[in-house]
Design a protein that fits this description.
By secondary structure, the protein is mainly alpha-helical. About 75% of the residues lie in helices and about 0% in strands.
Length: about 100
C-alpha cells in the first residue's frame, strides 16, 4: 500500500492549525495558562530531582508535553506564556470589577 506524502502532511498541518486556532481564543489562553502552571513550564523549573529518578522522569515528561504544545502553536514559549498570563490578569481584573 502506497503512502501519500501529501496526506500525511495535511494531517500534521490540520493538527498544527487546530492548536494555533485554540491558542488565539480567550478560552485557549486560559487553557494554555493552566497547562503551563500544571506542567511546571516556567523559567528555572527544576528538571532533575536529586536521588529521585521517578520525579526526574516526570518533570522531563511534563516539559516534553509543554514543548510539543508550544511547537505546534508556532510561537516562542515566552510569547505563549505572555499571552496566557496577560489574559488571566485581565480576567481577574474584570472579575474584581464585576464583584463591585
Amino acid at each position: 500500500m502506497a503512502v501519500n506524502p501529501m496526506g500525511i502532511f495535511n494531517v500534521f498541518a490540520r493538527r498544527r492549525n487546530a492548536y494555533r486556532a485554540l491558542a488565539n481564543t480567550d478560552d485557549g489562553k486560559v487553557v494554555l495558562a493552566d497547562l503551563a502552571a500544571f506542567l511546571g513550564a516556567r523559567p528555572g523549573a527544576p528538571l532533575v530531582a536529586p536521588n529521585d529518578p521517578i520525579a526526574t522522569a516526570a518533570a522531563a515528561a511534563r516539559m516534553e508535553v509543554w514543548n510539543h504544545i508550544v511547537g505546534q502553536i508556532g510561537m516562542s514559549e515566552a510569547t505563549v506564556r505572555q499571552a496566557a498570563d496577560h489574559y488571566i490578569a485581565a480576567s481577574k481584573q474584570q472579575e474584581q470589577f464585576d464583584d463591585e
